[in-house]
Specification:
The strands form two sheets. Strands 1-4-2-3 form a four-stranded antiparallel sheet. Strands 5-7-6 form a three-stranded antiparallel sheet. The chain has two domains: 139 residues, no CATH class; 76 residues. By secondary structure, the protein is an alpha+beta fold. It is elongated and about 60 Å long. The protein is 33% helix and 18% strand. The structure holds zinc ion (ZN). The site of zinc ion has 5 residues, from loops.
Length: 256
């Protein structure tokens, strides 16, 4: 799946980066801000700079007089504090920063990813800070919300197949990696009608997908459903039927 290799060669750090400067480079850097939640990851801003540490500090300060600093900084705060995302920055040394930045933005756009780069800038002397903050938060709500783009009918069969995921990208879903739904689906594809406890389910997904976060092991999200459920919940596309609390039966593949 080509899309997972997009960030080959990039270093990843949590934002804000802890002290210590990135290595010296004769040119500069291209960098990408990404949010991560429940195993999903997506980019939301691409930039380039000669001074990476200083630039990160600009975003951390998020001063209104600097349009990009404010927007990216506010997005980081909102995604992290209100949406419980982990925020990471991926960066790579570059001698052709503008060209690499352009190429990265183009590649992400063509994959259906929405970026803050698309916003036209404001003039801080006439703009309203409250309004601009609200706009950033609305943007974040859109990029974080799967259900806005993800209709149940689109995940009916074999969503873990790359071409299906590409299909979701065409629908505007910002995805760089397989989702937890894809992982649950794949791990239980050949176990129809068997029953598993919540812990067994987590272990089975983890076995198949070592990067799976057991903290996000919520089989009920793909069964009866609850707050924050997967779009498959309560539909015929759901992966499990809830037998009782903590016990689930895998539905036959053909029905999901
Ligand atoms: Zn699901």
């Amino acid at each position: 799946m080509a899309s997972t290799n997009r960030f080959d060669g990039f270093t990843v750090v949590d934002f804000p980066p802890s002290t210590g400067s990135p290595p010296e480079t004769p040119g500069g850097y291209v960098y990408v801000f990404c949010w991560i939640r429940d195993g999903d990851e997506s980019a939301f801003y691409v930039g380039q700079t000669k001074r990476l540490a200083g630039r990160m500090n600009d975003y951390y300060l998020a001063q209104f007089a600097a349009c990009t600093d404010f927007r990216v900084g506010e997005a980081v705060r909102y995604l992290r504090d209100s949406k419980k995302c982990r925020i990471v920055v991926r960066y790579k040394a570059s001698t052709e920063m503008r060209k690499d930045e352009y190429g990265l933005i183009r590649e992400l756009h063509l994959s259906g990813v929405r970026l803050m780069n698309d916003f036209s800038s404001y003039d801080y002397r006439t703009a309203d800070e409250t309004e601009e903050r609200a706009a950033v938060q609305r943007f974040c709500d859109v990029i974080i919300s799967k259900s806005e783009f993800w209709n149940v009918g689109e995940i009916g069969d074999h969503p873990s197949e790359p071409h299906k995921i590409e299909g979701l990208v065409d629908k505007g879903r910002s995805i760089l990696r397989v989702t937890n739904h894809d992982r649950f689906f794949e791990a239980f594809r050949e176990h129809a009608n068997l029953e598993y406890s919540t812990a067994e389910i987590g272990n089975k997904v983890k076995e198949r997908f070592p990067e799976f976060n057991l903290g996000s092991n919520r089989p009920n999200d793909h069964a009866q459903g609850n707050k924050g459920e997967c779009p498959c919940a309560r539909t015929d596309s759901r992966i499990f039927d809830k037998v009782k609390v903590g016990l689930y039966r895998v539905r036959p593949s053909s029905s999901r």
